[in-house]
Amino acid sequence: MIVIGTDPHKQTHTAAALDAQTAERLDELTAQARDAGHDRLLAWARALDEERVWAIEDCRHVSGGLERFLLRSGERVVRVAPKLMAGARKSARDFGKSDALAGVERFASDAKLAKLAGVAPLDASSGKQQRHRLNRKGNRQLNLALHRIAITQARIHVPAKDYLARREAEGKTAKEALRALKRHLARRVHRLLSTSPAQHDRRTRIQLNAAISVPCLT
Q: Comparing C-alpha atoms, which of 21, 24, 76 is closest to residue 45?
């Protein structure tokens, strides 16, 4: 079964299909908010899976036409309250709106993943003093996941403990060293996701892709 998260707009509708059990992103399509576009979305969804449910952001003035079309076609449709969307967008602390449901292929480098996660360093140097400050932007759920991994590794993982010790010996504070570890972890996650499926088992890749996806509907 798949869940098709749909973000309606006046001119276009963006839909993304996710596996209902693993949250793995399967495909995405943007179509015109017209009858021809509705037909295209339905044909696309039917080709992906025989069992599906449409989760549409409840913006009646722009989503009503699509919703009625799907119901007439025998599709299952649920409405998602806009306030749920507002909360998800606020938590992202990023500029603008992104409809992509975000895999690693959309990150050209580990630096771009680090920026999304809010672990990219922000320069706060002054004169001869070299410092980086906390980055409060980016997706806070992903930032929290990396933070939890970092503090756990700092407590029990020897390579991470050695890494932090080296950073502190270089003059960084404990918090600055931990931020550096989080950036290192973002690099590692990007490398794992970029590796071919033949080199890593499918379940690991699904879990990691689900962790960095930012669904348009929650």
A: 76
What's the one-letter identity of residue 186?
A: A
**How would you write the pLDDT of the chain (218 residues) with one tens digit per residue?**
999 999 888 889 999 999 888 778 889 999 999 999 999 999 999 999 999 999 998 887 888 999 999 999 999 999 888 766 554 444 444 444 444 446 677 778 888 888 888 888 766 556 565 655 566 777 778 888 899 999 999 999 999 999 999 999 998 889 889 988 999 999 988 888 777 554 545 555 555 555 544 433 33
Angle among Cα 53, 209, 82 to the nearest 5 degrees reads 45
Q: Is 53 part of a structural domain of the chain?
A: yes
Last residue of a domain, one of 25, 46, 80: 80
Q: Residue 160 is part of which domain span?
A: 104-212
Q: What is the pTM of this model?
A: 0.46
Distance CA 156, CA 105 (A): 32
Segment (H or E) for 18: strand 12-19
Q: Are strands 2-8 and 52-57 parallel, antiparallel or unpaired?
A: parallel
Q: Which residues pair with 32 in a beta bridge?
A: 12
Q: Which residue has the tokens 């980086």?
A: 132
